[in-house]
Amino acid sequence: MHAENPILPGFHPDPSICRVGEDYFLATSSFEYFPGVPLFHSRNLVDWEPIGHALTRDDQLPLETADSSKGVFAPTLRHHDGTFYLITTNVSAGGHFVVTADDPRGEWSDPTWIDAPGIDPDLFWDDRGDGDPTVYVTYRGGPDGIEQAEVDLETGALGEPRQLCNRLEGDYTEAPHLYEIDGTYYLLVAEGGTHTKHMVSVARADDPTEPFESHPDNPVLSHRNVSGMFNPIQATGHGDLVQAHDGSWWLVFLGIRKHGGHPGWHHLGRETFLAPVEWNEGWPVVNGGEPVELDLEVDLDVETANPNPSPEPSADLEADSRWETRDPFAGDELGPEWNYRHNPERDRYELADGTGALVLHGSPATLEDEQPTFVGRRQQHFDCLARTRLAFDPDPDVDVDEEAGLTVLYDDSHHYDLGVVRRGDDGERRAIVRQRVGDIEEITAETALPDGPVDLVCEATTETYRFALESAVDSAKPERETLTTAPTKYLATEVAGGFTGVYVGLYATGHGEPCETPARFESFEYRSTESEAKAEVEVEATTE
Ligand code: 6LW
């Protein structure tokens, strides 16, 4: 079956995977976003369906003090004895913790906190067949690399930690995952740091507590020597192994798709990729030892594995529409793709009962502050379009600088906002475009608005965001008025730093005062325009 990498486009780093029968579950890290640790399900490793989050309650996920790219780091997702276990780290509050669930789609437990330093915890059950497995937590303890200790999952109590390994091939050894395969214990780690030198290395031992022997040909995966000129996939690392139900082996890992030649940039964040694994002399070989490509073949021998497979993920997972959003406000709760920055003030978000509208009651906080009134979804296509119809008429009689609109946001100091405000001596209702890059902020476009709802549009290509208004009057043939454009590269990790990626979101703020005027978002649409972009390129190619 032909498949496309990344299997999870957009900001989906530090993937961890487990299999239960024929069902595959995957978790990624989520940092300052709420709810935390998005979860996905698949039956063929190619088509992934968002099924919710592991951390959906404030007491599971305190993010009040989490700066951008802090909060929840890399998770490990495992299934043991009928229970799903997720271990991760809230670097802003509490450190490592474990939550459990019988059904990953349901509510997960309260955290069991584990008092150990560092990041990237892994769980491994060493079952010697006596039905009383020893459970190990393995993590990056600090500059000395990978540490391990026995853990009591009921209480979180730890045994004496020991150092397992450090610097198998490169520096910054992290993201350990422990496996027992045919009686040999394998330790998979990430090294080189989470950018273009990133890599996956492996070591093995006859016992999980013994010194691990490093693979002489490490790393088993890296694009550090693969020029971005010829392969957009860069910075591959942080992997997790899974044996498929037909016995084949696969690695999920993170990587980026860079643009703009050298040094280039990436604004969609670190994404989740897939590659086949074979074994040679007891060592894993990823993708036949070749660099990973955007196109791959995934032929899980489903039929023979299980004659009566359980249902496929819902049919509408057609290629391009897979990650799109249409009419998200029709139900009584937002879909799994929607996130808040930090713990949300829930009374500021109102799904106007069945009218298909979302009403935001703007707080004093701006997008630069903790807990902004913001809800957004990941940008998952380079070529895409977001449109929302906003009914928002800031009250000219209140002395509050009320604003609401559509934003493309990387973090609290890197975002472009298309907002509706009242400005100028005449207090006219206007649309503005604000560009915030670090501590530089500028209103780069402004225009008067006719009365009534207005369609705010952001059209993205690999290099540019185009901000436009569409008259909400004649929706059959909307006139689009471009206000301005802005480069994608200033919302990239190479500029902003950090670990996340761009979100497309809706916001409201009173710039220091609570808004009196509710912002009613009557519709929202996010769709890929990749097929249009491809068609345009083909036309250009034929006319040259
Ligand atoms: C994560 C570490 C990493 O904890 O980046 O790329 C860190 N690898 O393993 C944050 O995502």
UniProtKB/TrEMBL annotation:
One of its GO terms (biological process) is carbohydrate metabolic process. GO terms for molecular function: hydrolase activity, hydrolyzing O-glycosyl compounds. Keywords: Glycosidase, Hydrolase. It comes from the Archaea. PANTHER family: BETA-XYLOSIDASE (PTHR42812), BETA-XYLOSIDASE-RELATED (PTHR42812:SF12). Belongs to the glycosyl hydrolase 43 family. Pfam families: GH43_C2, Glyco_hydro_43. This is Glycoside hydrolase family 43 protein. Residues 326-527 form the Beta-xylosidase C-terminal Concanavalin A-like domain.
